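Give me structure tokens for this 221-residue protein.
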Amino acid sequence: MVKLQNISKVYRTKTIETTALNNIDLDIPKGEFLSIMGPSGCGKSTLLNIMGLLDKPSKGTILVDGFQVANYASKSTAKFRNQKLGFIFQSFHLIPDLNVIDNVELPLLYRKTSSKERRELSELALGSVGLSNRKSHFPSQLSGGQKQRVAIARAIVGNPEIILADEPTGNLDSVMGDEIMDILLKLNRNNDTTVVMVTHDERMAKKTHRLIRLYDGSQVA
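Here you go.
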């Protein structure tokens, strides 16, 4: 489902060069739940952004479900990303002026989906994360765990084949973290959704199919 070949990422300024990723090779088959661990600044989020076609590697090839990016700014890349990928962020990235169901609908606005269908799909997504009764609330009226559930509903509303989650339990207590992790495991198990999760939590990582570790931009395990 995701194939990385010799991926490197270097950030350059006039005075300094920083290697974020160094020759990463990785195959992620369909239906796998993969976790990525490593110290802060080791390149985990950079790797996730490259998998999500949000960032361009300095070197190497990335294939996502057979799709190889020719132009990151093209409409075809944006369309592919919208249809195939769902993103979950540690800080939720909900729009404060929109209520819950409008936040969940956002990915569908970029598709040729009627307003009625958008609403129906969003209600189904909210139901799957146990938040049907919160659809008219605003983010400021939700707990951290509820905000992350909304973020998951937004990620899955378009039925993506791949979910990329960056520290999805990082801002939550252990109880809420376990609930969010259970939702991701259920999506993976029941829908055969491929999930790639960046985490600092060894306990969460052990629940996934496979764990890889990064250190200073290189894969060490």
